[in-house]
UniProtKB/TrEMBL annotation:
Name of the protein: NAD(P)-binding Rossmann-like domain-containing protein
Pfam families, per the entry: NAD_binding_8
Source organism, top-level taxon: Bacteria
Entries under Gene3D superfamilies matching the protein: NAD(P)-binding Rossmann-like Domain (3.40.50.720)
InterPro entries: FAD/NAD-bd_sf
Length: 424
């Protein structure tokens, strides 16, 4: 191609300098598209970074499911271990979680299936340990279902859910699942799977508790420097920002608003916030109300605008104390989670939460699922972020960007790059 020839690559605009927007932009650029990332005047990934010197930000100090991070870096260039090593960092196993219950009793819980059983048996006796083991075992097949219903594969209609309603425990809440446990501490552990993500356990479907199986299977991880000291999970955000530069994504700050004029099913003639023409659009910010934000007038946009947002914790820093690595403490009575290092403690207080539209919709029963945003919002218009059907936790946000990439690349090129396509 000479300098005077038109660029044959598809022009894709990603709207929103969110974590989902950055991840989608990096993936799409690696696929050979010309990608422009539009964002406001805040730093990239501001939805997960500290908001002020007194605010540690939403990003947890320990990562419970690092596989989506690894997949993101693998599918956008240099693999994560190599990128971490180049920055003098590493991802290593984190210490077990320290739980403090309403009665003042404490439990240190972590590790694989066998380790958790022995920890439970030492604390409560064999019958309670067996109950916990059996509960988490029962959630493993639920996780296998959930991961293919919005996380690793797009959830597009009720037809995908209908055959699995019984296995998913349709109509049963996290609180009701917790109530089946024989010990109050086990009940608290189950309910935590909902409230730490901003949801009411009484309104959250029980299949959300499948994350307990994920943590037991994949472990808990922390980012450390070359000396083994905690370096902070936000270093991954810095590496992703560098990946955008490597992939030559055009990052435009302070960009004008993007409005989808006319029908979302007639994409010809669209432009991005700077007036440049585009072939596809990925919306990765302000998805709590895409009608108001983008003029997107579809049934899906109207339905998601009617959902209430999750609640977020009040966050602050507290003094650190001499510990090894990053110690996560969950205080169940006050719904407070903290991550302590020798230098400082980041506190997330869910006991006095505030609405947090930047981090997705709140569950209000299983019917909420299909009111969340699908990946395809219109002809060559896609969504990525916590308002999607994969959920609002950190791993789900990263995986939503992968789904948007697969869909856009398929629609623009006819090539199916989803991992399930063995012929790619």
């Amino acid at each position: 191609m000479t300098s005077g020839d038109p660029d044959p690559r598809a022009a894709i605009t990603v709207v929103g300098g969110t974590l989902a927007g950055m991840a989608a932009a990096a993936r799409l650029a690696k696929r050979g598209h010309r990608v422009t990332l539009l964002h406001d005047d805040r730093p990239l990934a501001a939805d997960w970074r500290p908001r002020s010197p007194e605010d540690p930000g939403p990003l947890p100090g320990v990562l419970a499911f690092p596989a989506p991070w690894r997949d993101l870096f693998k599918k956008s260039g240099r693999i994560l271990p190599a990128e971490l090593a180049r920055a003098g960092l590493d991802l290593v196993a984190a210490p077990p979680v320290h739980h403090v219950f309403a009665d003042g009793e404490e439990l240190v819980l972590g590790g694989d299936r066998g380790a958790q059983f022995h920890q439970m048996e030492a604390a409560y006796g064999r019958p309670t340990a067996e109950a916990w083991r059996d509960l988490v075992d029962s959630l493993e097949p639920v996780w296998q279902l959930v991961r293919n219903l919005g996380l690793e594969t797009s959830l597009e209609s009720s037809a995908q859910l209908r055959p699995h309603r019984r296995a998913l425990g349709w109509g049963r809440s996290v609180a009701e699942l917790a109530a089946t446990q024989p010990h109050p501490h086990l009940r608290a552990l189950v309910e935590e799977s909902a409230w730490r993500r901003g949801h009411d356990p009484a309104r959250t479907p029980s299949f959300v508790a499948a994350r307990l199986s994920v943590e037991r299977t994949f472990g808990r991880w922390m980012v450390v420097d070359a000396a083994g000291r905690p370096a902070g999970s936000d270093r991954l955000l810095d590496l992703l920002e560098e990946r955008l530069r490597t992939r030559r994504v055009e990052v435009v700050g302070g960009a004008g608003a993007v409005r989808i004029g006319g029908s979302p099913r007639r994409p010809d003639g669209r432009g991005n916030g700077n007036g440049a023409p585009l072939d596809a659009l990925v919306l990765a910010g302000h998805l709590d109300d895409p009608v108001a934000a983008y003029g997107l007038r579809t049934r899906a946009a109207r339905r998601v605008a009617a959902l209430a947002p999750v609640v977020g914790p009040r966050r602050r820093f507290a003094p650190g104390r001499p510990v090894e690595g990053v110690v996560e403490t969950v205080e169940h009575a006050t719904r407070r989670i903290s991550w302590t290092t020798t230098e400082r403690t980041a506190v997330h207080d869910w006991g006095d939460p505030v609405p947090d539209p930047g981090h997705g919709p709140a569950w209000d029963g299983p019917g909420t699922w299909l009111r969340m945003l699908p990946v395809r919002l219109g002809e060559r218009v896609y969504s990525a972020g916590p308002w999607g059907r994969g959920g609002n936790d950190l791993a789900a946000v990263l995986m939503s960007a992968a789904l948007a990439t697969y869909a856009a690349h398929l629609d623009l090129t006819g090539l199916d790059t989803h991992p399930s396509n063995k012929d790619q």
